[in-house]
Amino acid sequence: MPAADQTSMSFPDVYRTPPDDATDAERKAIKAENDLHQKLYTAVAYILVNDFRFNKDIPPQASGFPGSLADLEQSFFLGVYGLLLADNWTQPSLGRTNPGQDDIQLPGGDVVTKRFVDATVGAVQEYTSNALLFTNVFGFLTSSGGAAYSTQPAAN
Predict the structure, then answer these.
(1) Closest-CA residue to 134 (of 89, 92, 91, 73)
(2) Is residue 154, in this structure, part of any structural domain at all?
(3) Which end of the chain has fewer CB atoms at under 10 Å, N or C?
């Protein structure tokens, strides 16, 4: 299945572009949020590529997502990523700066704990057991104008 039209797609739980009229404080808050999401994005991408043979063409920066990923690949990545967010797995390092015995140190130096890897494996299993549901929801969202994929409450 080809990739959905990227011109109208927005994934604010992966990366948010500050609005043109954002204040300095809003831009700073969005940057801090993007920095945290980048760590999660990098860890999830690393685990999926290295442990699940996920497409190595996933953009290295969250700001480039989804890049050239096909719809099924986008659905898979976003499903796993979203399940981790929903379960509050937002810090792959769990605060560690040095890797423990079973932890991973990413090429950029960030630590990914074994507990986070296990949570990611659980999210992959949950996605896989409900793949049809996830792909149908993704298809619905992309066909309805690419409404933002977000766990954040909508602004009024």
Answers:
(1) 73
(2) no
(3) C
Distance in angstroms (rounded) separating the CA atoms of residues 152 and 155: 9
DSSP letter for each residue of 74-117: HHHHHHHHHHHHHTT---TTTT-SS--TT-EE-TTS-EE-HHHH
In angstroms, the CA 44 to CA 50 distance is: 10
Residues spanned by the domain of 78: 6-143
* Inter-residue contact 83 to 127 (CB < 8 Å): yes
Task: State pTM to two decimals.
Answer: 0.85
pLDDT tens column, 77-100: 999 999 999 999 999 999 999 999
In a domain, 1, yes or no: no
**Helices vs. strands in the chain: H and E counts, helices first:** 4, 2
Domains of the chain: total: 1
